[in-house]
Every structure is written in structure tokens, then in C-alpha cells.
Inverse folding.
């Protein structure tokens, strides 16, 4: 298919709130999931005849199951605090990409069918019947939210658009309007074991290849064990780490850390994916079933600890939900947090003095760090609030000499999404992805100009894949993005075991 | 007993019933709906005490709004702080003897009415002139501001322009509370003021004014960040575990 040329918005020196461009992105729609994809997940294969009735009933069900949705539908006062906070609004100017307007797509239906004011005075409160055009708006604009939660930081009531988007996707799935990219991937996890669809033998081959590569490069036998029963640590990492650049460089980094620390570890074919797209479609049962593979693998392999690789939304699910979904983890070693982030793991070793580094090995890099949304705003590392900001940066500073942060309003809890999260990392949403990256690109550009930054480290497979693709649209080299453990890998001294 | 007194007494009982009954119904609904997953917006406090502090900062200082937009924060906070003072000051019409805290804030409460109008004016100006906010505003958003402004203006009119018989008003209000009805003065400004307040009470549980109780039930703000330490399984999710 010939793709139309997408023009990236111009980078400005200072962020500017765009002028409203009504309907600018109303044509942005990802492919609808075909019947086999839908049916594999137990969803209707195509839009059901009585979809309106079904959708309203599903909304009622969700309002009874999720306090977040119930409270957030009532609570918004249209104050506009969130209106200039979404990267997709800042990148496209489409007013329906303002978080409040996106929520209102659902709120107007909620009001019409579930509130006194909306039943009897619909015009007054902006209530509307759930018509075909409204459904089309839903499909378009709820697939323009990366569920990054930046709006929820600024909302005086903590209204989280991600919760609304997830509910909308759950409702659309239930009437046969699923999104192809996310639902196809969930099917692959169930069928093959990971999002990329890498079968067990191929994974084994890949890992052997990596062992040879590292041996050639360093002369050291760094192992990449698979299904090793009795290992101390089960590493669960996004499948992109096995396959894609620059992801694989971080996988090599994890392996070197394990090697140097002398801690036995293993990957698992059964749980060869940390990612969990059940989160993106707001489906509790999918999220639980996908997570369950990790519990099963951990029990089967008899490990003592579970460590999670560099992946943003996977860390949210692991950190915030695993204990609830698939816990308790009473069969693991209680001296370590379950799960543990690879950055927590490495940082602990650094503090113990168990690792040593040639920082000069990273001297050709002037590094900044992109906080991934799900790590920043939906999880934690370490024992204090905000540890998720401190720990990755401390690791970088331990392995590299040149580190600079981007502007304070674009990092930590205010970080901008890469533009590809939430199940939007698909080629059929390329225009959205390019434009959504604008705020991050602006912040990066300032640092490139001021400090000569040439490497943006991040700890998320989606961020890495998204930036690799969109950096060139903004005139940057695609290899500017990489993992934190890629930097660790470059600098770590091997063969110094205590 | 005039028809006017009977009508307003009935109106206020009805309005109070709707306000209390409606709010109780909504709050019960929020409370009984489970929050099946831990979703605090992080960094979040690790303990319940920390959560109380975070919530207190949101309620008293509007912390998140401050992070977002200084103009909305200034106008919004000014309005709410002034409203609190005005409401406290009005307790003098419902208590005998007047509580000492109400006596204490009387001088501030009198001027708070102006702050209240200034805040509302600023918020309305944003709604009218900032394109983003104008785009998201529904007719009810404008009307609620108009209603509050009319309540504030009619109140100030009685204080500074055309005094009403507040001794009689107080007798009416005290009587209402013990079902011993006293005559209400037939002062048009007073009647407008009271009617609008009754209207505000009635629409409270069916409008966006639910943001007041809603904040306390917002999972992103009222949950502690302790997901690795404590499980958080909702009743309906337990069923999945038994499958």
C-alpha cells in the first residue's frame, strides 16, 4: 500500500498551545479487527445488529464494576485544566484530542442513558443518543489516546482519561468494533506466547546467536538461559528485546549484569512476553489470563525471584496489578520485591559495589532520559515515591559521563508520551504517531541544540520502537534512542567477578 | 401564615430533601462500586496517612489544578475559599446563640461575597474567551455560573443596597428547622436570593456539582501506592479466581 507523505509539525523553541482545528484528525482510524481476530478473544466478529442497546448495557455493567469510571463520568466540571496537556492535542490541534473532550464523547452518552439531567434535558447538559456518528467518533478518538495518564496529573479530581478510553475499548470490543492491532497481538500471545509471535525454537536460536555475538565481542561466555529449571531469577521481558534494534542491546545488558553478579537466571518460552495488551483494551480477564503465564512459568521453573525487563506498560501491569491479578507470590523469596524491575535489580547491585564500569566507553554519547508514561505515572521503583525517576537516572550516571535532563515540565510525572503507547504503535496510525511525538521532540531538540545530546535512553519497548520510527520525521537519527541497559552493556566490566 | 411563607417553607423542605437524599444516593453508589485495581497517579503516597495528606492538599489548596493552570487556579480557589467564608457567615441565620467561630469570621465573610463574584467572573471569562474552554462548555456550564453569580449578587444587594429584615429571615430559618413556621418577609431581592439557593440545592445531586463528593472517591487520588505489598481483589474479580 502506498502511504501518503506525512509531514511532521514544525518544532518550535517554546511549546505553543495550538489553535483549534476542528475535525483535523477525524479521519484517523486504525483498522477494525476482522472476525477471526475478534472471535479468538470471545468478542463478536463484526458490529452486532443491536449494537446500541448492547453498548449501553455494557456501559451500565462497567459503571457497576469500576468506581473510577462511575466517579469520572459525574465529576468533570469542564474547567479545562487538562485541555492543553495531551500530546495528541498539542500535535494535532484537534479539539476532540483534548482529554476533557475525549471523555465527553463517552460522557454525553452516559448522561443520555444514565442521568436525570441527560434523560430530560439533553441539550442543556450536552447529552446525546448513541448514534452511528457518535460510534464513529468513539472509534476514531478513543484510538487517539495512548492511555498515558498525563491529563490525570493535572485534573483537580484526578480524572484519568485512560480509564475512560479503556472502558470505551471494552465496550467497542463487546459490540464487534475491536481494533485490529491490539486484538491481533493478544491472540498471538495466547497462540504463540509473545506479541511478536516468535516460536520457542526461534527464540532458542536467537539466544544462542546472542551468546556467540557477546563471546566474539568480549571473549566472555555470557549465557542467555531459556527454561532453565532451578534458576534464581525468572526474567520476563518484552519480546521486542529478542528481535528488534535497539531493544536487543538492552537484553545483552541484562545478561551481562546477571553474569557479572553471578546470579543464575532464565527466560521462559511460556512467558516469553512481558507486554500485556489486555491493559490497552481495558479487559480485566485478558490482562489476568496473559499475566497468569508468568505465575505458571515461575512455579514451573522453581525460581525464587521475578524480574521484569525494560517495558513501560508491562511494568505498570507487573508492579501495580500482578499481586492482585495473579498473586500472592508466597512461593518466591520474600526478601525481594515481587516483581522487581531490571533497573531496581541493577541499581541494587551497583550500590552493593557488585558491578564496575568503564564510563569512558559511553563518552561518545551525550545522554538524556525519556520517562515512559506508565513507569512515571502508574508505578514505582525502589522504596520511595518517585524512585521510578531516580533509579534509571542514577544507573545512567553510573555508566556514562555526560547526562542532561530535558526541560522539567516534560519529564518525571509531567513526561510526554512517545506518541505510540496504548495500542497505537501501528502503521495505520502513522500520522497520529508522528504528530503525537511533537512535544517530546521539541524538548529533545532544545537539548540537542543546547547540550549536543545524541542519545535518548528509555526503558520501554514501545517508546523505543516508536522513536526509532518517528525520529527521522523530525530530522533526527533513528539510532538516537536506546535502552538504559544498552548503556550498561557498553560500560560494564566483565570477568571481574568477586 | 401567608401563602408566601408556606410556599417557601415547602420549597426549602423539598430542596433539602433532594439535596440530602440525592447526595446520599450518589455517595452510596460511589462507595459500593468496587475499584478493582490499584491506579493511583504516581508518585503517590505509600501509606493511608500519606493519602490523607494528598487528599487534604487537593481539597484545601487545589494542588493538581495549581500544577495545571495558574489562572484557573486563582479564580477557582478564590471562588471556593470565598464561598466557604460566605457559607460559614450564613450559619448565623441558623444558630442561636451564634457560634463563636461564625462571629469571628463575620468581618471576612462580609467581604468574601466580592471575592466570590470576582472568582466566578474570572472563571466565566475563561469560558467565554479562551477557545479551548469555550469549545468544551455546555449550556449548563454557563447557567451554573450565572446561577451562582445571581445568588452572590442578590446577597450582596441585600447587604449593601437594599437591606432586608434579617431578624425576620433568621426567625423563619430557625423555625424551619424545628417545624415551627415563622413569617418570611416579602422582600423581592430576598425571595430571588432564596429561590436561587433552593434551585442550587436541587440541582446539586444531578449536576457537575457532584465534583465535591466525587473527589473523595477518585481512585487516582485516594489510593495508596502499595500494590506490591497488598493484594486488592474486588468482589467480582474473586469469581475469576475460582474458575
Amino acid at each position: 500500500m502506498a502511504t501518503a507523505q506525512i509531514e511532521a509539525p514544525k518544532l518550535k523553541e517554546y511549546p505553543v498551545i495550538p489553535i483549534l482545528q476542528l475535525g483535523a484528525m477525524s479521519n484517523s482510524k486504525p483498522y477494525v479487527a476482522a472476525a477471526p481476530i475478534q472471535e479468538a478473544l470471545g468478542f463478536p466478529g463484526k458490529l452486532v445488529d443491536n449494537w446500541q442497546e448492547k453498548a449501553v448495557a455494557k456501559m451500565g455493567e462497567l459503571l457497576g464494576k469500576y468506581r473510577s469510571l462511575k466517579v469520572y463520568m459525574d465529576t468533570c466540571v469542564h474547567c479545562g485544566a487538562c485541555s492543553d496537556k495531551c500530546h495528541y492535542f498539542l500535535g494535532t490541534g484537534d479539539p476532540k484530542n483534548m482529554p476533557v473532550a475525549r471523555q465527553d464523547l463517552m460522557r454525553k452518552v452516559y448522561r443520555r442513558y444514565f442521568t436525570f439531567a441527560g434523560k430530560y434535558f439533553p441539550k442543556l447538559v450536552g447529552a446525546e443518543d448513541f448514534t452511528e456518528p457518535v460510534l464513529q467518533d468513539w472509534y476514531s478518538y478513543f484510538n487517539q489516546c495512548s492511555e498515558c495518564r498525563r491529563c490525570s496529573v493535572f485534573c483537580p479530581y484526578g480524572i484519568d482519561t485512560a480509564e475512560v478510553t479503556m472502558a470505551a475499548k471494552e465496550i467497542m470490543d463487546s459490540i464487534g468494533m475491536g481494533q485490529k492491532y491490539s486484538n491481533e497481538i493478544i491472540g498471538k500471545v495466547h497462540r504463540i506466547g509473545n506479541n511478536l509471535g516468535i516460536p520457542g525454537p526461534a527464540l532458542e536460536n536467537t539466544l544462542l546467536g546472542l551468546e556467540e555475538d557477546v563471546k566474539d565481542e568480549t571473549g566472555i561466555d555470557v549465557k542467555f538461559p531459556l527454561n532453565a529449571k532451578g534458576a534464581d531469577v525468572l526474567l520476563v521481558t518484552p519480546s521486542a528485546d529478542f528481535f528488534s534494534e535497539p531493544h536487543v542491546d538492552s537484553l545483552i545488558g541484562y545478561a551481562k549484569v546477571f553474569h557479572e553478579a553471578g546470579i543464575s537466571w532464565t527466560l521462559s518460552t511460556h512467558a516469553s512476553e512481558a507486554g500485556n495488551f489486555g491493559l490497552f483494551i481495558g479487559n480485566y480477564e485478558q490482562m489476568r489470563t496473559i499475566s497468569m503465564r508468568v505465575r505458571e512459568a515461575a512455579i514451573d521453573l522453581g525460581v525464587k525471584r521475578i524480574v521484569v525487563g525494560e517495558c513501560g506498560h508491562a511494568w505498570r501491569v507487573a508492579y501495580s496489578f500482578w499481586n492482585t491479578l495473579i498473586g500472592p507470590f508466597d512461593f518466591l523469596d520474600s526478601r525481594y520485591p515481587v516483581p522487581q524491575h531490571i533497573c531496581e535489580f541493577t541499581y541494587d547491585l551497583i550500590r552493593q559495589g557488585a558491578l564496575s564500569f568503564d564510563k569512558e566507553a559511553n563518552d561518545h554519547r551525550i545522554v538524556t532520559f525519556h520517562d515512559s508514561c506508565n513507569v512515571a505515572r502508574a508505578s514505582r521503583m525502589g522504596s520511595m515515591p518517585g524512585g521510578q525517576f531516580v533509579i534509571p537516572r542514577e544507573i545512567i550516571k553510573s555508566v556514562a559521563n555526560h547526562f542532561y535532563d530535558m526541560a522539567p515540565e516534560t519529564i518525571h510525572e509531567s513526561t510526554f508520551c512517545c506518541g505510540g503507547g496504548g495500542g497505537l504503535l501501528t502503521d495505520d496510525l502513522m500520522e497520529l504517531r508522528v504528530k503525537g511525538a511533537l512535544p517530546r521532540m521539541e524538548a529533545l531538540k532544545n537539548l540537542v541544540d543546547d547540550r549536543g545530546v545524541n542519545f535518548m535512553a528509555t526503558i520501554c519497548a514501545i517508546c523505543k520502537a516508536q522513536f526509532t520510527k518517528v525520529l527521522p520525521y523530525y530530522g533526527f537519527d533513528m539510532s538516537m534512542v536506546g535502552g538504559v541497559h544498552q548503556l550498561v552493556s557498553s560500560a560494564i566490566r566483565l570477568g571481574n567477578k568477586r | 401564615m401567608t401563602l408566601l411563607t408556606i410556599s417557601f417553607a415547602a420549597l426549602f423542605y423539598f430542596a433539602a430533601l433532594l439535596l440530602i437524599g440525592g447526595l446520599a444516593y450518589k455517595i452510596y453508589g460511589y462507595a459500593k462500586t468496587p475499584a478493582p485495581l490499584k491506579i493511583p497517579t504516581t508518585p503517590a503516597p505509600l501509606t493511608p496517612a500519606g493519602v490523607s495528606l494528598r487528599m487534604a492538599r487537593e481539597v484545601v489548596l487545589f494542588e493538581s489544578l495549581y500544577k495545571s493552570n495558574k489562572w484557573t487556579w486563582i479564580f477557582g480557589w478564590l471562588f471556593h475559599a470565598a464561598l466557604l467564608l460566605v457559607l460559614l457567615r450564613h450559619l448565623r441565620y441558623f444558630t442561636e446563640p451564634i457560634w463563636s467561630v461564625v462571629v469571628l469570621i463575620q468581618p471576612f465573610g462580609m467581604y468574601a461575597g466580592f471575592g466570590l463574584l470576582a472568582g466566578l467572573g474570572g472563571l466565566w471569562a475563561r469560558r467565554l474567551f479562551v477557545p479551548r474552554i469555550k469549545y468544551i462548555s455546555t449550556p449548563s456550564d454557563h447557567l451554573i455560573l450565572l446561577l451562582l453569580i445571581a445568588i452572590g449578587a442578590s446577597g450582596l444587594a441585600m447587604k449593601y443596597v437594599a437591606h432586608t429584615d434579617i431578624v425576620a429571615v433568621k426567625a423563619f430559618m430557625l423555625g424551619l428547622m424545628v417545624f415551627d413556621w415563622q413569617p418570611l418577609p416579602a422582600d423581592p431581592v430576598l425571595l430571588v436570593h432564596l429561590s436561587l439557593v433552593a434551585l442550587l440545592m436541587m440541582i446539586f445531586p444531578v449536576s457537575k456539582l457532584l465534583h465535591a463528593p466525587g473527589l473523595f472517591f477518585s481512585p487516582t487520588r485516594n489510593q495508596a501506592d502499595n500494590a506490591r505489598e497488598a493484594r486488592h481483589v474486588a468482589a467480582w474479580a474473586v469469581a475469576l479466581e475460582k474458575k
Observations:
- The mean pLDDT of chain A is 96.
- The beta strands of chain A are 233-236, 265-266, 305-308, 340-341, 367-369, 455-458, 481-483.
